[in-house]
Design a protein that fits this description.
The protein has 158 residues and is an alpha+beta fold. Helix content is 16%, strand content 18%. Strand 4 and strand 5 (81-85) form a beta hairpin.
Length: 158
């Protein structure tokens, strides 16, 4: 942000930019969208952000110059918290994309010893029962908001 004062300075009055940069430079300081923009430029990466808001559920920050070298995936629960997202893999193993279809040429048929096992259906007594039906046109939706309040202003722990 210091190197790109002309770009980032347009969002601040006077010396506010340098005060902001000093605050963001402190350990354990929560960042925001501006710091994501700066991180994309600084590290030469594309930052993909999936949010909990319907209108802007996906945002992408690309470096202003050069070709992005890496991708960084984050989630943002509005208006509280950013989290990093990483591919799932066994320890020490690089995650690889799975074939698009089990019928694609890249997909190998499993050997008989590794074939999936048949699973018996769940007994009726263990099947959850609906105690009451929701009113027509309404559905219970899971809350995307955290149960504990956090710092306001769209923080990101950097």
């Amino acid at each position: 942000m210091r190197k790109e004062r002309d770009f980032f300075g347009a969002m601040f009055d006077g010396d506010e930019l340098m005060a902001y940069v000093e605050r963001m430079g402190c350990q354990r300081t929560w960042g925001d969208e501006l710091t994501l923009r700066a991180a994309a430029d600084c590290f030469g990466c594309t930052i993909h952000l999936v949010t909990s808001t319907e209108s802007n559920w996906y945002l992408r920050y690309e470096p202003q110059t050069g070709t992005p070298r890496k991708n960084l995936f984050l989630t943002y629960v509005y208006p509280i918290h950013y989290d990093a997202v990483s591919p799932m893999a066994n320890s020490g193993e690089v995650a690889r994309p799975k074939p698009k279809s089990p019928y694609s040429p890249a997909a190998k048929a499993p050997s008989p010893s590794k074939a999936p096992k048949q699973v018996a259906p769940r007994p009726r007594s263990l099947t959850p029962k609906r105690t009451s039906s929701p009113a027509r046109g309404t559905q219970a939706r899971p809350s995307l908001q955290p149960s504990t309040p956090g710092k306001p202003g769209g923080p990101a722990k950097m």
